[in-house]
Amino acid sequence: MALKAAIIPVTPFQQNCSLVWNDDTMIGAIIDPGGEVDRLLGAIEETGVTLEKIFITHGHADHAGGAAELKERTGVPIEGPHPDDQFWLDSIESQAARFGMSDARSFTPDRWLKDNDTVTFDDTTFEVRHCPGHTPGHVVFHHAPSKLCFVGDVLFHGSIGRTDFPRGNHQDLLNSIRNRLWPMGNETNFVPGHGPMSTFGQERQTNPFVADGRAVG
C-alpha cells in the first residue's frame, strides 16, 4: 500500500489541510478541513479520491471550521479530536467571526479520540496520540509505515504551538513533543498546521524551543 498525501492550504491563516489516500484503491481521508470547502471538494474530485473519513487534530476554527459542511456534503463521519476540546468545537462560529470566516460551523464529532486509539480508512491505519498543550484536546495522526505524522499546531519547522489560548499549557506542550512525538523516530516527516514540513530529527537538532540539549521545561 502506498500512502499519498496532498497539502491544501486553506483559510486566511493558510492552514495545512491534508488529503491522504491509498494509491492502490484511491480511498482516502481529509485531515483538518478548516474552510474553503468548495476548494477542498474540487481537490478531492481532481485527485480522484473517494473520501471515507474526516480527521480533526483540534478545535480551532482554522483547522475544524469546514468539517460540518464537508460532512454534510459528502456523508462521511468526523473523528477527533479528544473530548477536552469540546469547548473549542462549540465556539467555532464565534472564533471564526473574529477573523471573517463566515462559513465555519460548530459540530460534535461522530467519534471522540483518546491516546493510543487508531483511526482507519480503507485498509490504512493511523495511530492517535493525545498531545495537549496548544489546546487540551489536541491529537496527532501517525502513519508509522510511511514515517509520516500530521501534528496540527503542536510543532512547526523551527517553532512550537502557541499556548496563550484558553486552557493552553506550555509545559504540557513541551512534554507532548518530547514524550509523544520524538519516540516516533528522527526520520519521521511531519506535516504541521502551518508552514513547511520538517522531520523530528531536524527539529531535535535546530528547533530553538525543543532541540536536544535545551533545558527541559
What does this protein look like?
The protein is built from 7 helices and 13 strands. It is of the alpha+beta class. The chain has a single domain, classed as Ribonuclease Z/Hydroxyacylglutathione hydrolase-like (Metallo-beta-lactamase, Chain A), CATH 3.60.15.10. It has a 6-stranded mixed sheet. It has a 5-stranded mixed sheet with strand order 1-2-3-4-5, with helices on one face. A two-stranded antiparallel ribbon has the order 10-11. The chain is globular and about 50 Å long. The termini are far apart.
Please provide a brief summary of the model.
With 217 residues, the protein is α+β, with helices and mostly antiparallel strands. It has helices spanning 37-47, 61-64, 67-74, 86-90, 92-97, 170-181, 200-206, and strands spanning 3-10, 15-22, 27-31, 50-55, 78-79, 118-121, 124-130, 139-143, 148-152, 155-156, 159-160, 189-192, 198-199.
**Sheet having the most strands:** 6 strands, mixed
What is the arithmetic mean of pLDDT?
Answer: 96
Give me the CATH superfamily.
Ribonuclease Z/Hydroxyacylglutathione hydrolase-like
SSE sequence, one letter per element: EEEHEHHEHHEEEEEEHEEH
Rg measurement, Å: 16 Å
Main sheet strand line-up? 6-7-8-9-12-13
Q: Quickly name the level 1 CATH class.
A: Alpha Beta
CATH architecture type: 4-Layer Sandwich
In CATH terms, what is the fold-level topology?
A: Metallo-beta-lactamase, Chain A
Overall structural domain count: 1
Low-confidence stretches: none
Helix count from the secondary structure assignment: 7
Structural class: alpha+beta
